Amino acid sequence: MGTTYNITIEAESKTALKDDVDSILVAFNKEVSTYIPDATISRYNQAVDTFALRKSGAPHFFRNLVQSYRLHYLTNGYYDPTVMPLVNYWGFGYQARDTTQIGDSSIVDSLMQVVGLNRIGWEEAGDSLWLTKPGPGAQLDFSACAKGDGVDLIVQLFERKGYNNYMVEIGGEVFAKGQNPRGYSWTIGVNRPDPNSSRTDFIQKLNLVDQGLATSGNYRNFYEANGVTLSHTINPKTGWVERNKLLSTTVIANEVITADAWATALMVMGKDDAISVLEETEGITGFLVYAEGDTVGVYEAKDFSTTQSK
Fold this sequence. Notes:
Elements: E1 5-9, H1 14-32, H2 40-46, E2 50-54, H3 59-74, H4 84-89, H5 105-111, E3 121-125, E4 128-132, H6 146-161, E5 166-170, E6 173-177, E7 186-191, E8 202-208, E9 211-217, E10 222-225, E11 228-231, E12 246-253, H7 256-269, H8 271-280, E13 285-292, E14 295-300
Antiparallel strand pairs: 1-5, 2-4, 3-4, 5-6, 6-9, 7-8, 9-12, 10-11, 12-13, 13-14
Protein backbone atom coordinates (compact mmCIF):
# COMPACT_ATOMS: atom_id res chain seq x y z
CA MET A 1 0.00 0.00 0.00
CA GLY A 2 3.03 2.25 -0.08
CA THR A 3 2.82 3.00 3.63
CA THR A 4 3.43 1.54 7.09
CA TYR A 5 1.33 -0.22 9.69
CA ASN A 6 1.40 -0.11 13.47
CA ILE A 7 -0.33 -2.51 15.87
CA THR A 8 -0.47 -2.45 19.65
CA ILE A 9 -2.18 -5.47 21.18
CA GLU A 10 -2.44 -7.38 24.40
CA ALA A 11 -1.36 -10.83 23.20
CA GLU A 12 0.83 -13.73 24.21
CA SER A 13 3.05 -13.98 21.13
CA LYS A 14 4.20 -11.05 19.03
CA THR A 15 6.09 -13.17 16.48
CA ALA A 16 3.27 -15.59 15.66
CA LEU A 17 0.73 -12.78 15.45
CA LYS A 18 2.96 -10.66 13.22
CA ASP A 19 3.36 -13.60 10.85
CA ASP A 20 -0.43 -13.92 10.62
CA VAL A 21 -0.85 -10.20 9.98
CA ASP A 22 1.88 -10.05 7.34
CA SER A 23 0.50 -13.06 5.47
CA ILE A 24 -2.92 -11.39 5.27
CA LEU A 25 -1.49 -8.06 4.06
CA VAL A 26 0.79 -9.72 1.48
CA ALA A 27 -2.17 -11.58 -0.02
CA PHE A 28 -4.26 -8.42 0.16
CA ASN A 29 -1.66 -6.34 -1.71
CA LYS A 30 -1.31 -8.97 -4.43
CA GLU A 31 -4.90 -8.24 -5.35
CA VAL A 32 -5.52 -4.52 -4.77
CA SER A 33 -2.17 -2.69 -4.80
CA THR A 34 -1.44 -0.61 -7.90
CA TYR A 35 2.21 -0.63 -6.82
CA ILE A 36 2.42 -4.31 -7.86
CA PRO A 37 2.41 -4.77 -11.68
CA ASP A 38 0.83 -8.24 -11.62
CA ALA A 39 -1.71 -7.55 -8.86
CA THR A 40 -5.31 -8.31 -9.78
CA ILE A 41 -6.18 -4.61 -9.95
CA SER A 42 -3.13 -3.91 -12.13
CA ARG A 43 -4.14 -6.66 -14.54
CA TYR A 44 -7.60 -5.10 -14.79
CA ASN A 45 -6.01 -1.72 -15.46
CA GLN A 46 -3.82 -3.23 -18.20
CA ALA A 47 -6.72 -5.01 -19.92
CA VAL A 48 -7.98 -3.60 -23.22
CA ASP A 49 -11.71 -4.30 -23.05
CA THR A 50 -12.82 -7.27 -20.91
CA PHE A 51 -11.32 -8.62 -17.70
CA ALA A 52 -12.31 -12.06 -16.41
CA LEU A 53 -11.68 -13.49 -12.96
CA ARG A 54 -12.89 -16.04 -10.46
CA LYS A 55 -14.41 -14.34 -7.44
CA SER A 56 -13.07 -17.03 -5.11
CA GLY A 57 -9.59 -16.54 -6.55
CA ALA A 58 -9.56 -12.79 -5.91
CA PRO A 59 -11.67 -12.27 -2.78
CA HIS A 60 -9.96 -9.02 -1.73
CA PHE A 61 -10.31 -7.43 -5.16
CA PHE A 62 -13.93 -8.58 -5.44
CA ARG A 63 -14.81 -7.33 -1.94
CA ASN A 64 -13.29 -3.90 -2.59
CA LEU A 65 -15.14 -3.70 -5.89
CA VAL A 66 -18.49 -4.58 -4.28
CA GLN A 67 -17.85 -2.19 -1.39
CA SER A 68 -16.93 0.52 -3.89
CA TYR A 69 -20.35 0.25 -5.53
CA ARG A 70 -21.96 0.58 -2.09
CA LEU A 71 -19.83 3.55 -1.08
CA HIS A 72 -20.17 5.19 -4.49
CA TYR A 73 -23.94 5.11 -4.02
CA LEU A 74 -23.86 6.32 -0.40
CA THR A 75 -21.57 9.26 -1.22
CA ASN A 76 -23.59 10.28 -4.28
CA GLY A 77 -20.64 9.51 -6.54
CA TYR A 78 -18.03 11.58 -4.70
CA TYR A 79 -16.18 8.38 -3.89
CA ASP A 80 -15.29 6.81 -7.23
CA PRO A 81 -12.47 4.26 -7.69
CA THR A 82 -12.32 4.85 -11.46
CA VAL A 83 -10.47 8.17 -11.03
CA MET A 84 -7.09 6.49 -11.57
CA PRO A 85 -6.51 8.00 -15.05
CA LEU A 86 -7.11 11.45 -13.55
CA VAL A 87 -4.87 10.73 -10.55
CA ASN A 88 -2.05 9.80 -12.94
CA TYR A 89 -2.70 12.79 -15.18
CA TRP A 90 -2.56 15.23 -12.27
CA GLY A 91 0.70 13.65 -11.06
CA PHE A 92 -0.41 11.76 -7.96
CA GLY A 93 -0.46 8.18 -9.27
CA TYR A 94 2.06 5.46 -10.01
CA GLN A 95 3.23 7.06 -13.27
CA ALA A 96 6.07 9.57 -13.43
CA ARG A 97 4.81 13.13 -12.96
CA ASP A 98 4.66 15.21 -16.16
CA THR A 99 3.67 18.84 -15.59
CA THR A 100 4.00 19.95 -19.22
CA GLN A 101 0.33 19.22 -20.00
CA ILE A 102 -1.21 19.93 -16.60
CA GLY A 103 -4.45 21.90 -16.79
CA ASP A 104 -5.32 21.01 -20.41
CA SER A 105 -9.13 20.88 -20.48
CA SER A 106 -9.17 18.77 -23.66
CA ILE A 107 -7.09 16.07 -21.96
CA VAL A 108 -9.28 16.16 -18.86
CA ASP A 109 -12.42 15.88 -21.01
CA SER A 110 -10.91 12.90 -22.84
CA LEU A 111 -10.02 11.12 -19.60
CA MET A 112 -13.50 11.73 -18.21
CA GLN A 113 -14.87 9.46 -20.93
CA VAL A 114 -13.54 6.44 -19.00
CA VAL A 115 -14.26 7.76 -15.48
CA GLY A 116 -17.42 6.68 -13.67
CA LEU A 117 -18.12 3.45 -11.84
CA ASN A 118 -21.41 3.08 -13.71
CA ARG A 119 -19.45 2.76 -16.96
CA ILE A 120 -17.95 -0.59 -15.95
CA GLY A 121 -19.97 -3.49 -17.34
CA TRP A 122 -20.66 -6.37 -14.95
CA GLU A 123 -21.61 -9.94 -15.83
CA GLU A 124 -21.33 -12.98 -13.60
CA ALA A 125 -22.17 -16.65 -13.67
CA GLY A 126 -21.50 -18.65 -10.54
CA ASP A 127 -17.91 -18.02 -9.50
CA SER A 128 -17.00 -16.28 -12.76
CA LEU A 129 -17.07 -12.51 -13.22
CA TRP A 130 -16.54 -10.47 -16.39
CA LEU A 131 -15.86 -6.76 -16.17
CA THR A 132 -16.03 -4.75 -19.38
CA LYS A 133 -14.17 -1.47 -19.70
CA PRO A 134 -15.56 1.70 -21.31
CA GLY A 135 -12.16 2.13 -22.98
CA PRO A 136 -8.62 0.72 -22.73
CA GLY A 137 -7.63 3.68 -20.55
CA ALA A 138 -10.18 2.85 -17.83
CA GLN A 139 -8.52 2.01 -14.52
CA LEU A 140 -9.45 1.23 -10.93
CA ASP A 141 -7.82 2.62 -7.81
CA PHE A 142 -8.97 1.47 -4.37
CA SER A 143 -6.55 3.71 -2.48
CA ALA A 144 -9.43 5.66 -0.90
CA CYS A 145 -10.84 2.53 0.73
CA ALA A 146 -8.21 -0.25 0.65
CA LYS A 147 -6.22 0.88 3.68
CA GLY A 148 -9.45 0.92 5.66
CA ASP A 149 -10.35 -2.52 4.37
CA GLY A 150 -6.89 -3.77 5.33
CA VAL A 151 -7.46 -2.55 8.89
CA ASP A 152 -10.85 -4.28 8.95
CA LEU A 153 -9.23 -7.55 7.83
CA ILE A 154 -6.75 -7.43 10.72
CA VAL A 155 -9.57 -6.60 13.13
CA GLN A 156 -11.46 -9.66 11.89
CA LEU A 157 -8.35 -11.78 12.55
CA PHE A 158 -8.08 -10.49 16.11
CA GLU A 159 -11.79 -11.04 16.72
CA ARG A 160 -11.52 -14.67 15.56
CA LYS A 161 -8.64 -15.15 17.98
CA GLY A 162 -10.57 -13.56 20.84
CA TYR A 163 -8.40 -10.52 21.52
CA ASN A 164 -10.07 -7.69 23.41
CA ASN A 165 -7.50 -4.89 23.67
CA TYR A 166 -5.78 -3.63 20.53
CA MET A 167 -5.20 -0.73 18.16
CA VAL A 168 -4.58 -1.27 14.43
CA GLU A 169 -3.31 1.52 12.16
CA ILE A 170 -2.42 1.39 8.46
CA GLY A 171 -1.28 4.62 6.87
CA GLY A 172 -3.28 6.71 9.35
CA GLU A 173 -6.52 4.69 9.21
CA VAL A 174 -7.27 3.28 12.66
CA PHE A 175 -9.46 0.86 14.59
CA ALA A 176 -9.27 0.65 18.37
CA LYS A 177 -10.90 -1.81 20.75
CA GLY A 178 -10.89 -2.11 24.51
CA GLN A 179 -8.11 -0.47 26.49
CA ASN A 180 -4.57 0.67 25.89
CA PRO A 181 -1.61 -0.69 27.94
CA ARG A 182 -2.29 1.88 30.68
CA GLY A 183 -5.85 0.67 31.13
CA TYR A 184 -7.58 3.62 29.48
CA SER A 185 -9.52 4.09 26.26
CA TRP A 186 -7.32 4.55 23.22
CA THR A 187 -6.49 8.20 22.56
CA ILE A 188 -6.08 8.98 18.86
CA GLY A 189 -4.56 12.24 17.67
CA VAL A 190 -5.46 13.92 14.39
CA ASN A 191 -2.55 15.77 12.82
CA ARG A 192 -2.65 19.55 12.50
CA PRO A 193 -3.26 20.26 8.77
CA ASP A 194 -0.07 22.19 8.14
CA PRO A 195 2.74 20.96 5.85
CA ASN A 196 5.25 22.18 8.43
CA SER A 197 3.66 20.40 11.39
CA SER A 198 5.29 17.35 12.91
CA ARG A 199 3.62 13.95 13.03
CA THR A 200 2.93 14.52 16.73
CA ASP A 201 1.40 17.98 16.35
CA PHE A 202 -2.29 17.30 16.87
CA ILE A 203 -5.23 19.61 16.29
CA GLN A 204 -7.61 17.17 17.97
CA LYS A 205 -7.42 14.17 20.29
CA LEU A 206 -10.27 11.80 20.94
CA ASN A 207 -11.14 8.57 22.67
CA LEU A 208 -11.82 5.81 20.16
CA VAL A 209 -13.84 2.93 21.57
CA ASP A 210 -14.59 -0.10 19.38
CA GLN A 211 -14.74 2.07 16.25
CA GLY A 212 -12.75 2.95 13.17
CA LEU A 213 -11.36 6.33 12.14
CA ALA A 214 -9.97 7.72 8.91
CA THR A 215 -8.59 11.14 8.02
CA SER A 216 -8.12 12.64 4.58
CA GLY A 217 -6.22 15.85 3.90
CA ASN A 218 -4.58 17.83 1.13
CA TYR A 219 -1.83 19.49 3.14
CA ARG A 220 0.99 16.95 2.66
CA ASN A 221 0.49 15.46 -0.82
CA PHE A 222 0.74 18.48 -3.12
CA TYR A 223 3.09 20.22 -5.54
CA GLU A 224 3.30 23.46 -7.52
CA ALA A 225 3.03 23.69 -11.30
CA ASN A 226 2.97 26.89 -13.34
CA GLY A 227 2.61 28.92 -10.16
CA VAL A 228 -0.44 26.97 -8.99
CA THR A 229 -0.51 24.66 -5.97
CA LEU A 230 -2.17 21.34 -6.79
CA SER A 231 -3.35 18.87 -4.16
CA HIS A 232 -4.17 15.17 -4.61
CA THR A 233 -7.94 15.66 -4.06
CA ILE A 234 -9.47 14.96 -7.48
CA ASN A 235 -13.17 15.58 -8.14
CA PRO A 236 -14.49 12.55 -10.08
CA LYS A 237 -17.45 14.60 -11.31
CA THR A 238 -15.38 17.34 -12.96
CA GLY A 239 -12.00 15.70 -13.51
CA TRP A 240 -10.19 18.65 -11.96
CA VAL A 241 -8.19 19.09 -8.78
CA GLU A 242 -10.67 20.16 -6.13
CA ARG A 243 -10.11 23.49 -4.44
CA ASN A 244 -12.21 24.36 -1.44
CA LYS A 245 -11.77 25.49 2.15
CA LEU A 246 -11.38 22.01 3.62
CA LEU A 247 -7.92 21.11 4.90
CA SER A 248 -8.76 17.76 6.43
CA THR A 249 -11.76 15.54 7.13
CA THR A 250 -11.97 12.93 9.86
CA VAL A 251 -14.72 10.32 9.90
CA ILE A 252 -15.60 7.74 12.57
CA ALA A 253 -17.60 4.62 11.69
CA ASN A 254 -17.98 1.03 12.77
CA GLU A 255 -15.94 -0.17 9.76
CA VAL A 256 -12.75 1.57 8.72
CA ILE A 257 -13.41 1.03 5.01
CA THR A 258 -16.56 3.12 5.40
CA ALA A 259 -14.75 5.86 7.32
CA ASP A 260 -11.94 5.82 4.73
CA ALA A 261 -14.18 6.33 1.71
CA TRP A 262 -16.34 8.95 3.42
CA ALA A 263 -13.28 10.97 4.49
CA THR A 264 -12.19 11.19 0.85
CA ALA A 265 -15.70 11.98 -0.38
CA LEU A 266 -16.13 14.81 2.13
CA MET A 267 -12.85 16.39 1.02
CA VAL A 268 -14.19 16.54 -2.52
CA MET A 269 -17.62 17.89 -1.50
CA GLY A 270 -16.35 20.98 0.25
CA LYS A 271 -17.19 22.45 3.64
CA ASP A 272 -20.92 23.17 3.39
CA ASP A 273 -21.95 19.87 1.81
CA ALA A 274 -19.63 17.95 4.13
CA ILE A 275 -21.30 19.56 7.16
CA SER A 276 -24.72 18.57 5.83
CA VAL A 277 -23.56 14.99 5.33
CA LEU A 278 -22.13 14.67 8.83
CA GLU A 279 -25.36 16.07 10.30
CA GLU A 280 -27.73 13.93 8.25
CA THR A 281 -26.01 10.60 7.55
CA GLU A 282 -26.51 7.75 9.99
CA GLY A 283 -23.57 5.54 10.87
CA ILE A 284 -20.83 8.16 10.60
CA THR A 285 -19.64 11.12 12.63
CA GLY A 286 -16.50 13.22 12.70
CA PHE A 287 -15.08 16.68 12.27
CA LEU A 288 -13.67 19.01 9.64
CA VAL A 289 -10.73 21.38 9.60
CA TYR A 290 -11.02 24.26 7.16
CA ALA A 291 -9.35 27.51 6.17
CA GLU A 292 -11.11 30.69 7.23
CA GLY A 293 -9.09 33.58 5.88
CA ASP A 294 -5.76 33.51 7.65
CA THR A 295 -7.06 31.26 10.44
CA VAL A 296 -8.10 27.64 10.78
CA GLY A 297 -11.59 26.62 11.84
CA VAL A 298 -12.90 23.31 13.18
CA TYR A 299 -16.39 21.91 12.76
CA GLU A 300 -17.58 19.00 14.91
CA ALA A 301 -20.68 16.94 14.10
CA LYS A 302 -23.36 17.13 16.78
CA ASP A 303 -22.79 13.57 18.02
CA PHE A 304 -19.01 13.76 17.83
CA SER A 305 -18.63 15.14 21.36
CA THR A 306 -19.41 11.75 22.91
CA THR A 307 -16.15 10.36 21.54
CA GLN A 308 -13.84 13.26 22.31
CA SER A 309 -10.93 12.89 24.70
CA LYS A 310 -11.49 14.95 27.83
